């Protein structure tokens, strides 16, 4: 029986999707002409909603005009439209309130990230301290166990040596330890 090499299933699916995507792009290129971009000034004297459908437009309520958003500057200049009368993105909130809201949200995100980082560092330091204390306790416990075992072995050796001294008569009388040594 011959071993037949087969591509993995996910690779076959990826090739199929890629081929369909390329065919779809070719069909779009050939059938749909590119839509001409409308200037924002074409939406002037209409409604704010129509103007703000194009994200590059800015609506000014003072004179009901739709102008191109000045991308070179972050904020639109006051000569173009005051911040309290300018609308961008949505009609129900002015540009000034939008900036304040975005600044508050960004500030909250920064504060929450800072608090999370500090809390994580505190928890890690606390767990490290707790782990070190546990290790120190364990080391002290083992040291105490070794000391007790050493004392027990020392006592057992002393008992054994005393038995040997007693057996050979070398053990001195405990009542009179300063008795005269007699030579026989």
Can you tell me about this structure?
With 184 residues, the chain is mainly α. Helices cover 54% and strands 5% of the residues. Strands 2-1-3 form a three-stranded antiparallel β-sheet, with no helix packed on it. The longest helix has 73 residues, at 95-167.
What would you say about this model in short?
By secondary structure, the chain is mainly α. It is 54% helix and 5% strand.
How does the helix and strand content classify structurally? mainly alpha
Average pLDDT level: 80
How many β-strand runs?
Answer: 3
What does the overall shape look like?
A: elongated
Largest sheet: 3 strands, antiparallel
User: Termini, distance in Å?
Assistant: 104 Å
User: Strand content of the residues, in percent?
Assistant: 5-15%
- Supply Rg: 45 Å
- The total count of helices amounts to 3
The poorly predicted ranges are 32-36
SSE order? HHEEEH
Q: Major sheet: order of its strands?
A: 2-1-3
**Residues in helix, %:** 40-55%
The oligomerization state is single chain
């Amino acid at each position: 029986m011959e071993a037949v090499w087969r591509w993995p299933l996910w690779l076959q699916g990826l090739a199929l999707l890629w081929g369909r995507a390329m065919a779809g792009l070719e069909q779009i290129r050939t059938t749909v002409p590119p839509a001409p971009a409308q200037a924002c000034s074409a939406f002037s004297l209409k409604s704010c909603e129509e103007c703000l459908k194009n994200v590059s437009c800015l609506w000014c309520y003072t004179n009901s005009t739709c102008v191109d958003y000045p991308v070179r500057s972050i904020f639109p200049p006051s000569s173009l439209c005051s911040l309290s009368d300018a609308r961008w993105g949505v009609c129900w909130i002015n540009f000034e309130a939008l900036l304040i809201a975005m600044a508050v949200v960004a500030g909250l995100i920064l504060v929450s990230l800072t608090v999370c980082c500090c809390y994580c560092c505190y928890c890690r330091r606390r767990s490290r301290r707790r782990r070190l204390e546990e290790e120190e306790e364990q080391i002290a416990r083992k040291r105490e166990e070794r000391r007790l075992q050493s004392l027990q072995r020392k006592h057992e050796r002393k008992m054994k040596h005393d038995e040997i001294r007693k057996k050979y008569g070398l053990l001195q009388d405990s009542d009179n330890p300063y008795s005269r040594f007699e030579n026989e």
